[in-house]
């Protein structure tokens, strides 16, 4: 690793001022990617949109990264050997279809209503703990077909990860092993007696692959939605009047929240044939990482990019990436956001941020977002 290269960390990818300076300096930058590997990051919309669909760039790292493990570390789930990662993506993408997501909508609505019913209406409540963190996990359990009596294994495992910060904490071995054991049994049951759920749909594959695919969905599928809902509600409640003034504007509102928040940091490719991007020659095998938050605030593509403007005439954001390696859960994340925001606007049109947000968090993952669902008629 070349220690002279600028280090790009998780914090860098969320520092809008740093990303703006990099974008203004040029579309392509050679960097040290968090100590893992050297690579190039793209910070401009035009360069990123072209790179993400260029056939000379592939989705998987060309180098092998060690043997498969039955219970991979969480970080390893995102850096699997190319063949294994592609196999898992194919397995998931064949079954996680827009039709399946559309069929799940009544259950997504049910989970949203259950959580909101449990929140106090007239006094401050922590929206993160009460809704934006548990909601995507409940939806994933519905999607996968995890029955209520098994969901404690999923919650113990998933909540070992700091949702809104996107920074991993150590998941205890006992929680990981307990969940893996439970899922192995569930996969076997669904293979013998299929139901209308994602595990059943994937159960004909190698059980080890099904387990890895489920764990990848659990780890990758809740944090971006938690961040989108947390920051999205905060943005909407900071405006007046109400969450969404006109129900017909729900879709563009969610799309603008996706652009402005961009809950997923990177969309990555690897060079299978040397090429030039933004005037820079990239050698075969190198990593190309599109920094989606920078791309989605490129002023050359989005006028006044730091403003929340759901009435933009065009919003070609890349919050879910682009091309064959776009986010597998894009349709599900959109559905969750629309159900959550639409339900809040319909049920609690006077919802407000609490005047006192309490003490500032002392460490990552302890932030609260205090809201009052129904403060009553101000008159």
Automatic annotation (TrEMBL):
Ranges annotated as spanning the membrane:
none
> Under the GO molecular function aspect, what terms does this record hold?
heme binding; iron ion binding; monooxygenase activity; oxidoreductase activity, acting on paired donors, with incorporation or reduction of molecular oxygen
Entry keywords, A to Z? Heme, Iron, Metal-binding, Monooxygenase, Oxidoreductase
Q: Determine if Heme is one of this entry's keywords.
A: yes
Output the superkingdom of the source species: Bacteria
**Would I find Oxidoreductase among this entry's keywords?**
yes
Q: Which InterPro entries match?
A: Cyt_P450, Cyt_P450_B, Cyt_P450_CS, Cyt_P450_sf
By sequence similarity, the record places it as follows: Belongs to the cytochrome P450 family.
Protein name, please?
Cytochrome P450
């Amino acid at each position: 690793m070349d220690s002279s290269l600028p280090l790009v960390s998780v914090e860098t990818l969320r520092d809008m001022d740093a990303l703006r300076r990099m974008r203004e300096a040029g579309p392509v930058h050679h960097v040290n990617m968090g100590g893992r590997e050297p690579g190039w990051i793209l910070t401009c919309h035009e360069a990123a949109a072209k790179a993400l669909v260029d056939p000379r760039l592939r989705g998987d790292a060309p180098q092998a990264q060690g043997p498969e493990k039955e219970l991979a570390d969480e970080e390893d789930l995102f850096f699997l050997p190319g063949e294994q990662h592609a196999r898992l993506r194919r397995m998931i993408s064949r079954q996680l279809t827009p039709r399946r997501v559309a069929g799940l909508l009544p259950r997504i609505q049910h989970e949203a209503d259950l959580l909101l019913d449990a929140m106090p209406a007239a006094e401050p409540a922590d929206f993160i703990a009460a809704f934006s963190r548990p909601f995507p996990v409940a939806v994933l359990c519905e999607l996968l077909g995890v029955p209520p009596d098994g969901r404690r294994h999923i919650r113990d495992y998933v909540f070992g990860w700091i949702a809104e910060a996107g920074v991993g904490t150590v998941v205890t071995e006992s929680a990981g092993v307990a969940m893996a054991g439970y899922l192995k049994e569930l996969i076997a049951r669904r293979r013998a007696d299929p139901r209308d759920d994602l595990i059943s749909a994937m159960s004909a594959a190698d059980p080890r692959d099904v387990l890895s695919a489920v764990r990848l969905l659990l780890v990758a599928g809740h944090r971006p939605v938690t961040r989108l809902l947390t920051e999205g509600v905060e943005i909407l409640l900071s405006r007046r009047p109400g969450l969404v003034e006109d129900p017909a504007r729900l879709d563009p509102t969610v799309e603008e929240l996706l652009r402005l928040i961009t809950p997923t940091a990177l969309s990555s490719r690897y060079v299978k044939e040397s090429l030039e991007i933004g005037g820079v020659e990239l050698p075969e095998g190198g990593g190309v990482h599109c920094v989606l938050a920078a791309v989605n605030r490129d002023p050359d593509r989005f006028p006044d990019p730091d403003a929340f403007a759901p009435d933009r005439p065009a919003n070609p954001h890349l919050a879910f990436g682009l091309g064959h390696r776009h986010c597998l859960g894009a349709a599900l994340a959109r559905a969750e956001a629309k159900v959550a925001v639409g339900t809040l606007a319909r049920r609690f049109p006077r919802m407000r941020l609490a005047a006192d947000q309490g003490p500032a968090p002392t460490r990552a993952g302890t932030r609260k977002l205090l809201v009052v669902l129904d403060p009553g008629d101000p008159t």
